[in-house]
Design brief:
This protein has a single domain (12-252), classed as Vaccinia Virus protein VP39 (Rossmann fold, 3-Layer(aba) Sandwich). It has 8 helices and 8 strands; from the N terminus they run βαααβαβαββαβαββα. The chain has helices spanning 18-21, 35-45, 47-58, 75-83, 96-115, 160-173, 209-217, 245-252, and strands at 12-14, 65-69, 88-93, 129-133, 146-152, 174-185, 220-230, 233-241. An 8-stranded mixed sheet has the order 1-4-3-2-5-6-8-7. Helix 3 (47-58) crosses helix 4 and helix 6 crosses helix 7 (209-217). It starts with 11 loop residues before the first strand and ends with a helix.
């Protein structure tokens, strides 16, 4: 008699401080009950293809550690694991409801990979994904604990001060020579309707705002590496590197 295979349980860790637990944030959809419909909309309007391209451009290598900031329901996390099954991915978001959806989706994804074409479950030595409830401007991670930081369509939800803290935090958690890859809307200031007047996002990025954000935080070689057209506007992919040991010595010379 065959037993039906069950999806693996993806762990969710709440890393918020007591103060952060009471903190407000912008959820993936303004009305939380709309969040499940968001995934269908993204597939319809091509957002999933833009996230797939983000994973491709990141240049992740086998076994590397990746932090997806503002991961929401885990779309980019699963794109990364689909393209790079040996990566070790952590998804971070302040929205616990979105992370629970991400955990369910990831469990089904892992089960499909285990079954493969044979239909017989194969053992999984370790889960390649963990999910963390937390905020972008205080990453609950040890210094130099990741090789890559990625984020797609999340930075524009942050007010200017939080964007700056996020950039500094991303640099802190990256290993020397590690890389950050961001995908966002160019000139995205129109998203300000999601925020109160006292909590507006930063000024419009255009092509260089994200580049300037990362450069001022201490990243090197920040640049727009690709652009794409979408019905919501122009999308930019921005990439930068954390200084390596030699570069740090030059900077301090």
């Amino acid at each position: 008699m065959f037993r039906r295979a069950r999806p693996p349980q993806v762990p969710i860790t709440d890393a918020r401080t007591p103060e952060e637990a009471a903190r407000d944030y912008m959820p993936a959809a303004e009305r939380r009950w709309l969040n499940p419909l968001r995934l269908l909309r993204h597939r319809w309007d091509g957002i999933h293809r833009l996230r797939s391209r983000t994973a491709e451009l990141a240049g992740i290598e086998p076994g590397q550690r990746v932090l997806d900031v503002g991961c929401g329901a885990g779309e980019l996390c699963l794109q990364i694991l689909t393209q790079h099954p040996d990566a070790k991915v952590t998804g971070l978001d302040p929205d616990a409801d979105a992370l629970r959806r991400a955990a369910r989706r990831a469990g089904r994804w892992m089960l499909r990979r285990r079954l493969g074409r044979s239909g017989n479950p194969a053992p999984v030595r370790s889960l390649p994904l963990q999910l963390v409830v937390g905020f972008a401007d205080r990453l609950p991670c040890e210094p130099a604990s990741f090789d890559h930081v990625v984020s797609s369509f999340a930075v524009h939800h942050l007010p200017a001060e939080q964007q700056q803290r996020f950039a500094r935090e991303a640099l802190r958690v990256l290993s020397p020579g590690g890389r950050i890859t961001l995908a966002d809307m160019a000139g995205h200031g129109h998203s300000g309707e999601h925020h109160h007047d006292s909590d507006r996002p930063a000024k419009q990025h255009g092509d260089g705002g994200l580049v300037q954000l990362l450069t001022e935080a201490g990243f090197l070689h920040a640049a727009v590496i690709e652009e794409a057209s979408h019905r919501v506007g122009r999308i930019v992919y921005v990439q930068a590197s954390a200084p390596g040991p030699g570069e740090q010595r030059l900077a301090g010379a």
